[in-house]
Design a protein that fits this description.
The protein is an alpha+beta fold. It has a three-stranded mixed beta sheet, with no helix packed on it. The protein contains two helices and three strands, in the order H-H-E-E-E.
């Protein structure tokens, strides 16, 4: 019984394996072209109009979970600043 308790205590000390790294997604929508816009106000999007599938996502916005490799996503923060640009 004492060995069983010791085994349980040691099991609690085990270091969990890190989560798997998600596969890198290639730039299928041309997001790299807009990387210089990160950190700028959303008004720059008006000067860099892109025709095609574009999604501007603000905090609290509801968005679909469908993945479209040709669509470019602009993630905006509460200060109306572009935080992330990616495909999907």
């Amino acid at each position: 019984m004492r060995h069983f308790i010791l085994l349980i205590a040691l099991a609690g000390c085990a270091v969990p394996a890190p989560p798997p790294v998600p596969p890198q997604i290639e730039d299928t929508c041309g997001a790299a072209e807009f990387a210089g816009l990160i950190g700028q106000k959303t008004t720059v999007l008006e000067r860099n109009l892109r025709l095609g599938m574009v999604r501007v996502i603000r905090p609290g916005d509801m968005v679909t979970q469908d993945f479209r490799p040709e669509r470019i996503n602009f993630m905006i923060d509460d200060m109306e600043t572009i935080q992330t640009i990616n495909c999907g």
